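JOB MANIFEST
job_type = single_chain_structure
chain_count = 1
residues = 271
[input]
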Amino acid sequence: MNKPLHSPFREIVAYVPGVVRSSLYKGYFARFYAEYTSLIDSDIQWYRKAIGRKQKLRVLDLFSGTGRIAEGLAEDGHECTAVEVSPDMTAGKNTSGARVRRILGDVFDFPGSAEYDSVVTGQMSVAMFLNDSERFHLFHHIWSHLKQGGRLVFDMPLPPEADSEDVIGLPLLSGERGYVLSGVFRDVENAVQTTYFLAEVDAADAPTSRILASHQLALLNEATIRVELESAGFYVEQFEISNPAPLQPGLSAPVAQISAVKRSVDSFPAS
């Protein structure tokens, strides 16, 4: 987290003792994330509908996290491979189960093979690539995994009409004492959303733990997404806008749900 923090997280880090920085996808927050997302299934239902059930497909789930999307698709009979770099996100998951083949490693270390019918990248993973050259590299890598005519299915946050700053409290799960303070800051001019999670966990036999995680997402409009996909060898076949009900008020934002088809190209630009 190199950029200045937003308030009140800036003041908390400056004046409250013992705040430890962490990744949202490691350690405490990996478990917190997994438990909260287990309460949501609207995105999984959309992925299942987008992939379909008419025939058994080979599906690659990149940035798979806990594997919740791959598991949903496997229930429909698809042959799923899930790739995730964080061991904490996959803790307790069977890496050799019949339903989902799980691979622990970097998405970009998983070589393209042009053998998959569909690639999914859920949980707004594409938006974590903040500039166009990074997203081109990602889209081209995905293109290399797909059969001709194969489909990329993913979601992206859309920019709001105006800047917004929402800070709310979330309860801890699993009987823990304390709270999580969540802040979502949307910057329309710079097309970026910054999200914070600060956990304060009390234990009867240990000092209070304070853990801060954050991440940023790109906020792209429909025209930009279409142009970037076209440059990377795709055409958009479906672009839907969803307004999912948030787990807590203040976190709602429009989300684009996108299906793009691999097309044949003679060559790609460098980036």
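[summary]
DSSP finds six helices and twelve strands in the chain.
The CA atoms of residues 121 and 166 lie 26 Å apart.
exit_status = 0
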